[in-house]
Automatic annotation (TrEMBL):
This is Metallophosphoesterase. Coiled coil: none annotated. Residues 2-164 form the Calcineurin-like phosphoesterase domain. GO terms for molecular function: phosphatase activity. GO terms for cellular component: cytoplasm.
Amino acid sequence: MLKIAVLSDIHGNYPALQKCLDYAINLGIDTFIFLGDYVGELAYPQKTMDILYSVKKQYKCFFVRGNKEDYWINYEKEPTGWKEYDSTTGCLYYTYQNLTENDLQFFKSLSIKEELTFGSLLPITICHGSPRKISEKLLPDNENTYFIMENNSTDYILCGHTHRQGKIVHNEKIVLNAGSVGVPLHSNGKAQFMILCGLQGSWDYEFVSLEYDIENVIADLHSSGLSRKAPYWCKVSENLLRTGKLSHRAVLERAMTLCKDKFGECNWPNVPEECWEQAVKELIYGHLP
């Protein structure tokens, strides 16, 4: 039986990444698929990249690009709009400042999808969001998802991006979402990945959730200085790591609504810290104004 570890949305959580890799390697797995969003959100991104480069040297690996990789590539072309000590873009700026030229060249080398074949097993498509668009979500009970599945060249699609593990079946085609290694939603704080199992021409799968040292990851936010450079973004990160609830997007959208209510308009990335503060108070701490 062929076993492949499928990992997505690491977002710089190197302890969670190492935990998932160790688990897979201890099972004898020597083939890995990585579905993008390797860094961003969390501290010390180079530690994550060093682990990925090491795995790439030692094992058979396949990588695709996530939307975060596009952020770094595009910012290199046009470095405007991001700044330190800003909850909206401080984390993006911090991560970019800690990437190397080698990292950027690696990201540029990745495609947004690959079609893979392993022996006599059914071919699979790997992508971050969808095979069409890097930031497109493949959601259950969704006509757009069904359309993409029907028009995809393979019967199996492996994806991430939503940070939720799951399976979608439509007309004998299957989407498998590996979840998120680094900042998963609704995982009770556990790191997530997937093991793909190939036998007798077909695929089976196992969703894996693992406990790891979350408090160490949170301590890194402070020791790295990231919690000062993106204060309320990091408060959302802490809450998400511990509880698996409330995405950054949800808090950002609330902060932008508060900004618009107060100032008449709100255009990303110009979201005042006072609006972030109020959004965090409401959504995380439950303190209404």
